[in-house]
Design a protein that fits this description.
Strand content: 5-15%
Strand order of the largest sheet: 1-9-8-5-4-2-3
Helix content: 25-40%
CATH superfamily of the largest domain: Type I PLP-dependent aspartate aminotransferase-like (Major domain)
CATH class of the largest domain: Alpha Beta
Distance between the termini: 37 Å
Order of helices and strands: HEHEHEHEHEEEEEHHHHHHHEHHHEH
Radius of gyration: 20 Å
CATH topology of the largest domain: Aspartate Aminotransferase, domain 2
Bound molecules: pyridoxal-5'-phosphate
Number of helices: 16
Number of strands: 11
Length: about 400
């Protein structure tokens, strides 16, 4: 990762813990942090745990990236930091955000969980922020681990100490569960016991959401906030989908992660191939610049529930949905709402994040279904090429 990014990197057991370490280092408690409302709710709780006030950013309806032009001047001036999301791997405008943050004298922190292979202005996502954090659960498929990277190498030792203070000791039972999980999942999948697999994952605490968003539990959350900054009080929210997020890794976990990381370029090439296929369909919007090895391709469809159901019938699960946006989900007790929420809400409702490795099947399912492409209300449709007509795939 140091070679890829050209900056110092520190291993962390999860991206969420890396973000917590970074936010604690760069943002004094009580500060206001601009973030994307179309984001994993876990990240919202990480901000609250760090004692920060989330401020929801306006997004572009086309791709869910941060819309800087729609951020009012007064809002910029009240911020203590900006946190990017790079949703599904689409880069936020990092060079412009870097310049803006420099002008304001505030840190830029990049959440590069979805964007390990993405570039912007010829540089990797994650090489612009004072800090950037990666997840190895996504492209590498390690289901554990991540990296916190820093612009100033002199900060590494201090951040390493901060990380170590937060780590829980390695547990043999957790290591064994981690080692056996892929075999258990493959076995259950092989038997086509999807219902049983989900029940098993729930039992293991790896799938805790009945819905897209986890339950907010506002009363308990307010109580936890009175103790912030503190990670422990927010454990029940932050651990969702990954109970080992602050566990010191054992040898087995590290060896598997290392092996998967050596295959990253191969995986990224696979992502790129799927992205090219999906991007040529009528459910994708034309994107400027070279194709990126996105983590998921956000196709835009009118009836997303029907598309999800049709994909499920072909045993393609759709995850990483972030609907409704965080300001609607949490309300203004817990966050400042976006000054221009409609485009984010539109994107959150219509984006169908497709795994590039499932491109062929997904395209045939959507074609058979006759899924209608969705078009952002404000988009310049004149720019849409003819291949996008009703008959083009
Ligand atoms: C945008 C985003 N950031 C951060 C994370 C957290 O990553 P990890 O599971 O490695 O903590 C996720 C998890 O899905 C995510 O979607």
């Amino acid at each position: 990762m140091r070679r890829r990014l050209g900056r110092e990197c520190l291993y962390v057991p999860s991206c969420r813990l890396g973000l917590y370490v970074a936010l604690r280092h760069w943002c004094p408690p009580g500060g206001r942090v601009l973030m994307s409302p179309v984001n994993d709710d876990v990240i919202f709780f990480v901000l609250l745990a760090a004692g920060l006030r989330p401020v929801q950013a306006p997004l572009r309806a086309e791709d869910g990236t941060l819309d800087m032009a729609a951020v009012p001047e007064s809002l910029w001036r009240g911020l203590s930091a900006v946190l990017t999301t790079n949703l599904y791997g689409t880069p936020d405008p990092a060079p412009e955000l870097r310049a803006r943050c420099d002008g304001l004298g505030i840190p830029l922190i990049e959440d590069a969980a979805h964007a390990i292979g993405s570039q912007v202005a010829g540089r990797p996502v994650g090489s612009f922020g004072d800090a950037s954090v990666f997840s190895l659960s996504k492209h590498t498929g390690a289901k554990t681990g991540g990296f916190l990277s820093v612009a100033d190498p002199g900060l590494r030792a201090g951040l390493e100490r901060a990380r170590d203070e937060l780590l829980w000791p390695a547990r043999l039972s957790a290591e064994l569960a981690y080692a056996l999980r892929p075999y258990a999942e493959a076995g259950v999948r092989g038997l086509r016991l999807i219902g049983a697999a989900r029940a098993a994952l729930r039992l293991l605490g790896l799938e805790e959401r009945e819905d897209i968003r986890m339950e907010l539990r506002p009363g308990e959350l307010k109580q936890a906030m009175s103790a912030a900054p503190a990670l422990a009080d927010f454990h029940s929210w932050i651990r969702v989908d990954m109970h080992d997020y602050r566990l010191r890794p054992g040898g087995l976990r590290l060896r598997r992660t290392e092996r998967l990381l050596t295959r990253l370029d191969h995986r990224l090439a696979g992502h790129l191939e799927g992205v090219r296929r999906l991007s040529a369909t009528r459910w994708a919007l034309p994107r400027p610049g070279p194709a990126q090895p996105l983590f998921r391709v956000p196709l835009l469809v009118e009836d997303r529930d029907a598309a999800i159901a049709a994909l499920a019938r072909r045993r393609i699960g759709v995850g990483y949905l972030y609907d409704p946006p965080l300001d609607v989900y949490a309300g203004d007790v817990f966050t400042d709402p976006s000054p221009a929420p409609e485009p984010a809400a539109w994107f959150a409702r219509h984006a169908l994040p497709v795994d590039p490795f499932k491109a062929e099947t997904a395209i045939s399912v959507l074609t058979e279904l006759g899924a209608r492409p969705a078009r952002p209300p404000s988009a310049a449709w004149d720019a849409v090429p003819p291949a996008w007509g009703e008959h083009g795939v």
